[in-house]
Amino acid sequence: MTAVLHYRLLILLLFMIIFLIGADTFLVSPLIPLLSRELHMSVGQGGLLVTAYALAYAVAALVFGPLSDRVGRRKMILWGTFAFGLFSLLCGVAWNFWTLFLFRALSGFAAAATAPQVWASVGDWIPYEKRGKAVGIIAAALSVSQIIGVPAGAFIAGGLRFGCCLSLRLSSGGAHLGYIPVFIARIRPERLLIFYVLRDK
């Protein structure tokens, strides 16, 4: 695989990680009324699902950030995306409030092991003259996830059944469990830096 292809694949993968995590995050809020009916919980309990995710993310980010400095960004992203996919799948098959609460909190932990490392990896893996462009592309993924995630959740809550929500969660989880870890495992960021150093000489 050439260095140019490595660069493009790396940007695409980082974009997709932020997009899928963002879409999964923003999908929940519009679904709270539907989840409340399907899982026989109050709307107030449904709101705690957002809190569980956000609080777990905030606490875990303080731990996984320094840990990534020691074990490496690629390893953290690899296992973080795998864990996020697994817990997303479990959220999709949760059978009551407390199981969904637990899996949602674990999803927050996994997201904290993944998303911050995406931004840190830009500084580690992308040549200086390409970082602004890379950050712009990856940052757009968060906005795109809001554009798609929130309306998708509202559409499901407005006219479809819980099974459609489950299908979306399974799709998101499957993406993280499947192609993203496989391709990240093949990425060799050092080839990008070597390519651009040699090109500029």
Q: Which key terms come to mind for this protein?
A:
201 residues, mainly alpha, Growth Hormone, Chain: A, 89% helix, globular, MFS transporter, MFS_trans_sf
Structure description:
With 201 residues, the protein is mainly α. The protein has helices at residues 3-38, 43-71, 73-92, 97-125, 131-159, 162-177, 179-186, 189-200. Helix 1 runs antiparallel to helix 2 and helix 3 runs antiparallel to helix 7. The longest helix has 36 residues, at 3-38. The chain crosses the membrane at residues 9-32, 44-64, 76-95, 134-157.
Produce the secondary structure layout.
Blueprint: H1 3-38, H2 43-71, H3 73-92, H4 97-125, H5 131-159, H6 162-177, H7 179-186, H8 189-200
Helix pairs in contact: 1-2, 1-4, 1-5, 1-6, 1-8, 2-4, 3-4, 3-6, 3-7
